[in-house]
Design a protein that fits this description.
single chain, alpha/beta, TIM Barrel, 8-stranded parallel barrel, 10 helices, 8 strands, 40% helix, globular
């Protein structure tokens, strides 16, 4: 069975004072059956890693450049994330695709570089509201996956996160059967691409996940966890999501 994973994407939120939420999360003693990953702004990665110490909460970056190093002002290399103590990185998030023009080809290059640096990848895929209303969700999601997945045997180091773009931060969530259909399509593609290893890869759902709807979402087949935005900034909001995942 895939590992259960609760990942928090802090986006462009958080400063040193926010480490108090990590203290509260550790005090809440997240379930050992759930892998917890927090992806703060790059300025907090090293401090958060030091703050967590030997606790099993993992820390990740929110993106990385495809190049190992170079003249790329404002970007961060995969090796720099590793040097700061990160073990994971989010790639292909819809906000990176929209705000920074990241294409499928760019995301695939970033993924290869991140793998070479030794990082675990949380690879995001998802459709826009226009694509959703046009009924092309599965076509979009599977195309994004096919373009990004490596040919190498790297299944154990890749986590997939399905995030319908129109649901992120809006409070809207697809119907249970819609989530189930997309996750089933992702699972089928992973098994086709990686063979038996594809059945062991975690597939997360993201998009307005909160304590009130977490249990219902985690009851859906092939939902192995969540990529959580706003609710992950607050331990009191994130802890119940982790607990719901542990019970699923």
């Amino acid at each position: 069975m895939p590992r259960k994973i609760a990942a928090g994407n802090w986006k462009m939120h958080g400063d040193g004072a926010a480490l108090a939420e990590i203290d509260a999360l550790m005090a809440a003693n997240p379930a050992p059956s759930v892998d917890v990953v927090i992806c703060p702004p790059a300025t907090l990665i090293h401090r958060m890693v030091s703050h967590i110490g030997s606790h099993p909460i993992a820390v990740g970056g929110q993106s990385c450049h495809a190049a190992i190093k170079g003249a790329h002002t404002g970007d961060i290399a995969a090796g720099m994330l590793v040097d700061a103590g990160a073990t994971h990185v989010i790639l292909g998030h819809s906000e990176r695709r929209a705000d920074h023009g990241e294409t499928d080809a760019m995301i695939q290059a970033q993924l290869e570089t991140a793998l070479s640096a030794g990082l675990q990848i949380i690879l995001c895929v998802g459709e826009t509201e226009t694509q959703y209303k046009a009924g092309t969700t599965q076509d979009i999601v599977t195309a994004q996956l096919r373009h990004a997945l490596p040919q190498s045997d790297a299944a154990a180091r890749i986590i997939i996160a399905y995030e319908p773009v129109w649901a992120i931060g809006t409070g809207l969530v697809p119907q249970d059967d819609e989530i189930a259909a997309v996750h089933a399509a992702i699972r089928a593609l992973l098994c086709d691409h990686f063979g038996a290893a594809g059945a062991e890869m975690a597939i997360l759902y993201g998009g307005s996940v909160k304590a009130e709807n977490a249990a219902a979402i985690f009851a859906i087949a092939n939902v192995d966890g969540a990529l959580v935005g706003g609710a992950s900034l607050n331990a009191a909001a994130f802890s119940p999501i982790i607990a719901a995942l542990a019970r699923a």
